[in-house]
Each structure stands twice: as structure tokens, then as C-alpha cells.
Amino acid sequence: MTIKSFGLALGLAIVCMPLAAAAQSGGSDDIDLASAAQLFKNNCSACHGKKAQGVASYPKLAGQDAAYLAGKLQTYRAGEMVGPNSVLMIQNAKDLSDQDIASLAAYISTTFEE
Ligand code: HEC
What we know:
Elements: H1 3-25, H2 33-48, H3 66-77, H4 86-93, H5 98-111
Helix pairs in contact: 2-5, 3-4, 3-5
Bound molecules: heme C (HEC).
The site of heme C has 22 residues, from α2, α3 and α4.
């Protein structure tokens, strides 16, 4: 490959990358219910229950609205204590992206019966 065409290919790759990413996720802040369902199943349901019904000291999430859930997840992600067992949630929220939080909040608030 000549230097010139390498430069062109690189330029194209840079221009196309954000487009490809946007096409894949539907935009960075878009709600992705399918991946939220997967996240919930893998990372949340062990404590909060398969139906977000809660058990013992793990609070019920079903019946909460999306804004409340997202607010809590942002607070935990920031490392702030909310209740006596927040450490457990801080661990679980620290790697969530804004999109994960928005999607999880939408998913949980619309999927489970109170
Ligand atoms: C290791 C067990 C555990 C896991 C896994 C877990 N949580 Fe929690 N969660 C808790 C506990 C315990 C609390 C209460 C923490 C406190 O005392 O502040 C909580 C609180 C919450 C709250 C606040 C509820 C309220 O009524 O204020 C939300 C929202 C929440 N979790 C969502 C999630 C989501 C979404 C996931 C998956 C990404 C998740 N949790 C994974 C144990 C867990």
C-alpha cells in the first residue's frame, strides 16, 4: 500500500468508526432493552431476584420508576453510601455506562410487575 492510500484508508476508518458504533448501538445514549435484559440477568438478578422482586436485604426494584432507579444507580456509581449495604451496589454500579443505567432503569421499570 502506498503512503497516500494508507492515509486515505486511515482517514476513512476514522470517519467511519463513530458511524459504525452509532449504527450498532443506535446512538450512545439510546435505550437498549435487549442488552439491559442481559445485564440484569447476569449481574443483578442474583441479588434482586429474577423478577426484581427483592429478597431479604436486597431491595425490590419492581414497581420503581425509571428516574428513581437511574438516580440510585448514578449515586452508587459515584461511590456514595445510601443505605447500610451500599458497598454491595457500589461494586456493581461502578462499571455501568450512562447508557447501561438508562437502559437498566427503563428495562426494570417496564418489565416487572409490582
Ligand atoms: C451482591 C448483591 C447485589 C447485586 C449483584 C446488585 N445489587 Fe442492587 N442492591 C443490593 C443491595 C444490598 C442494595 C441496598 C444497598 C444499600 O443499602 O444502599 C441494592 C440497591 C439497589 C438499588 C436501590 C433500590 C432502592 O429502592 O433504593 C437499585 C436501583 C439497584 N440496587 C439496582 C441494581 C442493578 C440494576 C443491578 C445490576 C447491575 C444490581 N442492583 C446488582 C444488592 C445487589
